[in-house]
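Narrative of activities, Objective 1.

The group set out to show that a structural description can be obtained from nothing but a protein's sequence at a throughput compatible with the screening campaign. Below is one input-output pair from the validation batch, recorded exactly as produced.
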Amino acid sequence: MSGIHKVTINDLAKELNTSASTVSRALQNHPRISAKMKAAVLELAKKMNYHPDPVAHHLRTGKGFVIGVIVPRIDRHFFASVIGGIESIAHENGYSVLVSQSNERYDDERAIVKTMMSKKIDGLAVSLASETIDYKHFETAISAGIPVVFFDRVPLEPISSMVEVDNFQASYDAVQHLISQGCRRIAHLAGPMTLSVYRKRKEGYIKALEDAKIPVEDELILENSITLVTGEEAGLKILNMKNRPDGIFSAGDYSAIGVMHTLRNGGLHIPQDISVVGFANEPFDSFVDPPLTSVDQKNREMGKNVAELLLKKMNHESEMENRECILLQPDLMKRESSLKMRDKKKSKEKKL
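Output recorded for this entry:
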């Protein structure tokens, strides 16, 4: 019984009465190949069920056309949306995307980088694990000639190109919004200070208070309160305070939901007693009661910028040593959880 013949570039070239190199260039959308020839090659490739050999292609060009992506958790809407943005640009340019999650663990992240390097990826997009304070594994990849672009959770000291939302300004604007709603004792549910995103969000919170001549109180900064559970625990601490805050800025939406749940169970009304603002603009924010005001991080736009930076480096349009930083401007999505003044206006209208 004869084996199944695998269609090659030579087979396509023979059918079209042209050279294998012309077919190869047509498949790579080379600008010197006519549109008519490209169309003929693509039509025949589909008809003959031609699939390129990735190993042979890598040996020939040194490229595998694969972008690696490492995220802390793949089950978060933010990271899934960023990956979607990366994929949209990658696929348009003939690259596939290999995704892995560190589960917030440094050792897992380091092992993933090693594995991806062995798979001959052409570029690497990374959002750091919460445990990561050492970046040697990424420096090894960069030294090996693999372009690396960090996004969202970026190193405290820049070692490569980065894409992030302006976390400082986003937090500053969020706290200013709470102040505009009449809040004067504003608590902050902070994330781990090992990550730059949470450092900058805390700095923005503090600066907004200082500019408004509102004292910064250590009691009102609840560290490592970034998950649903730690948000609920923060809510219990707030309920037990003698002088409770009248506003809360949370560094993440999950902790914001957690604190709202606990406060409501404790008999408080949101936003009448305490206004709440989160960070991430999760899909569920519009469906909680009351709907949560939150900072939108431009997820998909961030992913597209990451992929475009990688492509520039992979195509040698930008030197490996160049450390570009793209800072996206955030949007504050205002919803009922923070609109204390609107509730007061409605109350006055009812009395009239």
